[in-house]
Amino acid sequence: MQSRAWPFEEARRVLKRVEQNPPEKGHVLFQTGYGPSGLPHIGTFGEVARTTMVRHAFEQLSDIPTRLIAFSDDMDGLRKVPGNLPNREMLEEDLHLPLSRVRDPFGTHESFAAHNNARLCAFLDQFGFDYEFASATEYYTSGRFDEMLLTALEKFDRIMEIMLPTLGPERRKTYSPFLPISPKTGHVLQVPTLERNVEKGTIVYQEPDGEKVEIPVTGGHVKMQWKPDWALRWAALGVDYEMSGKDLIDSVTVSSKICRVLGKAPPVSLSYELFNDEHGQKISKSKGNGLTMEEWLRYAPPESLSYFMYQKPKTAKRLYFDVIPKAMDEYHQQLRAYPDQDLKARLSNPVWHIHNGNPPESRMVVPFAMLLNLASVSGAHDKETLWGFLRRYAPEASPETHPDLDKATEYAVRYYEDFVKPRKTYRLPDEKERAAMEDLLARLRAWEGEAEPEALQSMVFAVGKAHGFEPLREWFRALYEVLLGASQGPRFGGFIALYGVEETIRLIERALKGELAGAQG
């Protein structure tokens, strides 16, 4: 109960809510929302992963059962055709139909929504999330929302009082919280409600051809505009917790007001910060900037992404390729620290939340950043090249006994080929640096005994001090820029131990001859 980890902070907020008003439904409901006009993406992963962390923390505080619903708003109308889809002409014909009635451009499912919903479920299943899928179309048409839709009809004027001040002058003229599904065209219509009959549970609206039509608000004949729809969902299902992006803060406020008008308390909510790209611009699906899910998983495992998502959800973060190695190494640092921590420290350790309280053992005997440097100096095109060095450095390690290390070698080679290799820029040492590197070379040639990382690191330190580098990081930066073609690098003693004393000697000799700087020209 005392953990300051943010999932526990959130879980205590949920606990306070249910202690004050025990849920009649008999469980605590967590929800994440999804718009199936596009494929699931890295934000989808982040929202479900973070919500799962809060859910698990809650389960440590309370015996009340929990559920997590992944809700797809698949009754929304198709407003425009996404630019990256096949059969665009067919989709143009299906504009304004509910997504669950739009034909699947891929030809594999009964509708576009069904295709994307299947992708969503496969996506979530891939990462082992415990959730239940929910479809807006099924909930509207099966009658699960009927009682609350009738309440919304009764409270129509109060809902309009909340919504109209949030709209522009032109939009106010045509706005209605109810969107009729036209019995003529099947389109989701953005038209005003002309008449209401609370006793009959119907509304009257005008079709584009001028005909006035009366339809019930129940049974899937209408859906609600998205802010009232969000409130309807919260009220009808009794949602206790849902997080959303900072860009939806105003929408949460409006929907919460409508939820109260419908007679229910809105859920506890968390507004998380959005991600930025490498230029500090907000990541946008339409712009395609930033990093995709597939791109992250090309270079690191999903656990490293979960670690990245865990960190400070209310703080904006750069989501670009260069954050991957750091996330990978910090994740394994936390795994290694976990066994020796007391309970309080474990509950604050991100890996406890990432792995639902049962984190695995880290078998990464070499940091990922070190593997990248090893790939760089060895010019590795496959993981076997890296394993040649690893077997000598850690004889007990093998792909079979250290599967996370084996997978990391594959990630390292890909990352090196795609990002490190194209950006490597070697330079020649200046006079002071050359003298220091010749000294280091002499000491390495005289080295006897085991290639122990700390002893080698002390020697490298001693060389830097002997040649007057102040601060010492200038000495290490020189080593990185001259020998590795980068401005940053690993603990150099550990690098020598992994790469090999003899190999490092040859590397320095080549650099001093100008072969490294000359090769890039």
Task: Show the helix and strand layout.
Elements: H1 6-20, E1 28-34, H2 42-61, E2 66-72, H3 88-93, H4 112-126, E3 132-135, H5 136-141, H6 146-154, H7 156-163, H8 169-174, E4 178-180, E5 195-197, E6 202-206, E7 212-216, E8 222-224, H9 226-237, E9 241-245, H10 249-261, E10 268-272, E11 275-276, H11 293-299, H12 302-310, E12 317-318, H13 324-337, H14 343-348, H15 350-354, H16 368-378, H17 383-393, H18 403-420, H19 431-445, H20 453-466, H21 473-484, H22 492-499, H23 501-512, H24 515-520
Parallel strand pairs: 1-2, 2-3, 9-10, 11-12
Antiparallel strand pairs: 4-8, 5-6, 6-7
Helix pairs in contact: 1-2, 2-12, 7-10, 9-10, 12-13, 16-18, 17-18, 19-20, 19-23, 20-22
Task: Tell me about this structure.
With 521 residues, the chain is mainly alpha-helical. The chain has 5 domains: 192 residues, HUPs (Rossmann fold, 3-Layer(aba) Sandwich), CATH 3.40.50.620; 65 residues, no CATH class; 62 residues, no CATH class; 56 residues; 90 residues, Orthogonal Bundle (Arc Repressor Mutant, subunit A). It contains 24 helices and 12 strands. The strands form 5 sheets. A 3-stranded parallel sheet has the order 1-2-3. Helix 12 packs across helix 13. The longest helix has 20 residues. The mean pLDDT is 94.
